[in-house]
Design goal:
binds protoporphyrin IX containing FE, Uridine Diphospho-n-acetylenolpyruvylglucosamine Reductase, domain 2, single chain, 11% strand, 5-stranded mixed beta sheet
């Protein structure tokens, strides 16, 4: 009996020693690996807050490149570390970095939005999806923007713009707030033309209230920006659920629409809902997300196109010629077609160049899902990665004389991943074609029907956190 007890004790003791040895070895290996890994250079700043204040200050003045990124690139190189909003972050710059991080979405990194954005856009929106669910939603959006979809969108967008101009631009010579009105227009285009949802009064303001909280501190106390945004989101949710259920009934009674091969993006989403591919809450979240993704970005791109045209009269004359040629090939009252859009190459170069200098989205955050070896450094799992368009758009390595406005530079082939106004990789902008149509058609209407000039040519641009002209870009207009 005593011998048996001794044996058991001996066995337990040996197992304990073995486990301790394995644990020690693992710990040693880990700390050895940790000490071997080389973090990018840079300063983490103050505890928790890091360099957030410098980042936000520079961002607000629209000097993120000059005052935050460029100075650190000069000190540390293209890849540097910092701490932003409590998170250790690596800022990466250059076409190779854009390609590496944007194309490795889902494999090495995943997109990483602040908690307030996720709560307000909805955790079932495309920006939170990965793998098959992400592909499914992108597929539905893509079929709405195939060539048949785009052809059908042109007359709808023309009609909406005509109504908009009649409502807000008519009445002879006057001053209007260009950016603020263009926001209303792009909002109407995405909801009415793309989704097929009629815009009712107050809808714009309610969506705007949601957007105001998208980057706010996610504290839900009464009166805070975030709580106001949350209650606006609830109103939108209720309204959308009603619309979706009514539309669902209609579709279920119409076999063609049930296939999801016809109609607007909303009918395609609901057809997918009926087929059981997505849920009702996914339809709601994606309507909210797409409206958010579409209207601020497009209206800012349009505004900067006009700002740059005002500052470069020679470019304006070339652009005007392109539009007059289209006009002269048409009978009175004949509207634009999808074929006409293909002729507006210079106009699109002007817009691309304006977005190179004033990107509507300056970049976005990713989160490392494993330790990443990049540029001779290790980016530890869990750290954030910030890619920015400034790192290439403002670099002489990719764009000669980068601060000079020169739309013709887009006649040449541009190095992949150096022009990233629409992002790249699996999360490249899903609404690129809609944005392009919206911009080209609106420019056509304005330049062929109005004489216009900027009231404040040097109006500053503020980024908070999306860019906008600080005074709403007032312009003086008179009908031609
Ligand atoms: C000039 C206008 C626009 C610009 C500059 C722009 C820019 C961008 C950029 C840079 C991204 C990538 C973000 C990232 O990598 O994290 C993106 C994604 C996205 N954009 Fe746009 N966008 C514009 C208009 C639109 C429009 C009109 C729509 C929809 C109708 C739209 C829908 C989306 C969606 C759904 C995504 C996320 C795609 C995904 O996660 O797979 N965008 N956009």
């Amino acid at each position: 009996m005593a011998v048996k007890m001794n044996c058991l004790l001996y066995l337990s003791f040996s197992i304990l020693i073995a486990i301790s040895f394995v644990l020690l070895l693992t710990h040693y290996k880990r700390s050895k690996n940790k000490s071997k890994r080389k973090l990018p250079p840079g300063h983490m700043g103050l505890p928790w807050i890091g360099e957030t204040v410098d980042f936000c200050k520079a961002q607000r003045k629209n000097k993120l490149y000059e005052e935050f990124i460029k100075t650190r690139i000069q000190k540390h190189g293209q890849t540097f570390k910092t701490r932003l909003m409590g998170c250790p972050t690596v800022v990466v710059n250059g076409a190779d970095a854009n390609k590496f991080f944007l194309s490795n979405e889902f494999k090495l990194v995943v997109s990483s939005w602040p908690s307030s954005s996720v709560q307000l856009m909805g955790e079932h929106s495309i920006m939170e999806k990965q793998g098959g669910a992400h592909r499914c939603l992108r597929g539905i959006i893509a079929t709405s923007l195939n060539s048949a979809g785009l052809e059908g969108l042109v007359p709808k967008i023309c009609k909406t713009i005509e109504i908009h101009l009649e409502n807000y631009w008519s009445g002879g010579d006057k001053i209007i707030s260009f950016y603020s009105l263009t926001k209303v227009l792009t909002f109407t285009i995405v909801l009415e033309c793309f989704f097929g949802i009629e815009v009712k009064s107050e809808m714009f303001e309610t969506f705007e209230r949601v957007l105001e909280g998208v980057f706010a501190v996610p504290v839900n106390f009464p009166g805070s920006k975030f709580s106001r945004a949350k209650s606006a989101r609830k109103e939108i949710e209720n309204m959308l659920v009603d619309i979706i259920r009514t539309k669902r009934k209609e579709i279920e009674e119409n076999e063609k629409e049930k296939e999801g091969e016809e109609g607007t993006l909303l009918s395609r989403l609901i057809a997918a809902l009926i087929r059981g591919e997505i849920s009702e809450v996914e339809v709601v979240d994606n309507v909210v997300l797409l409206v958010f993704a579409a209207h601020d970005t497009t209206s800012f791109a349009i505004s900067m196109t006009f700002k740059m045209l005002a500052h470069h009269p020679d470019c304006y004359s070339t652009l005007l010629k392109e539009h007059n040629e289209i006009m002269s090939s048409k009978r009175r009252e004949e509207t634009l077609t999808f074929e006409d859009m293909k002729k507006l190459t210079y106009t699109w170069q002007v817009t691309r160049e304006s977005m190179r200098i004033f990107p509507p989205i300056f970049g976005s955050f990713r989160k490392a899902i494993k330790d990443i070896e990049y540029d001779g450094y290790t980016i530890p799992k869990g750290w954030k990665v910030l890619w920015t368009s400034y790192g290439t758009h403002y670099s002489g390595e990719y764009f000669e004389d980068p601060l000079n406005f020169n739309p013709s530079r887009f006649e040449e082939t541009i190095q992949p991943y150096s022009y990233v106004a629409f992002g790249g990789g699996p999360r490249v902008c899903a609404g690129y074609q809609l944005a392009k149509l919206n911009i080209l058609i609106f420019v056509h209407y304005v330049v062929t029907k109005y004489d216009w000039s900027l009231v404040c040519p040097d109006e500053p641009i503020i980024i908070d956190p999306l860019p906008f002209p600080s005074q709403g870009m007032p312009i003086r207009i008179s009908p031609k």
